[in-house]
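hi! just following up on the protien thing from before. the input was this:
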Amino acid sequence: MCGDQAVFECPECYEQEHTDLSSAAFCQPCSQTIHKHSKRLKHMPVELKMVTQLGDEESSILILKGILCVQGSNYTTLSQPPRTSRNSLHNSTLPNWLSFNPRAATNDFTGTESVSHIPEVMLVESVPNWLSMDAYDCMAKDINTIPDNIRQLLHSCCMCVYSKS
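and the predicted 3d structure came back as:
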């Protein structure tokens, strides 16, 4: 409620309010205040378990595998295909990425001005380079250094997909 980190959650408040989960998670003072109300006196808030540090056996590294972008009504994806000995695109140390645009605009080659939308898959190189802190510093200095496909990615990204290493 106040914006401080929640340390308690109350299932009864969630069921009673039928709203999002944030309305049932409270810091210590807000939990005490909200549960003084006559409708909530019998509620039993539960202390949230906080993970402060993961042990070695529990730690893992998340690797970015895909990005979903939305621009207008067009959804595009950027994904890193799995590497196998049979489908390795290049022997590069940086993974290659594939961009899929289901409604890429192309001329229909009939000489008219009309444009048709044909699905398009393109190879996009150096995605990890553009998502690094060095690239952030470079972009902060001169935004014109960003390639168009990376600029579109940064502008319309709405969901990222990760896998554990």
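Confidence is low (pLDDT under 50) at residues 87-91.
The first strand starts at residue 8 and ends at 9.
cheers
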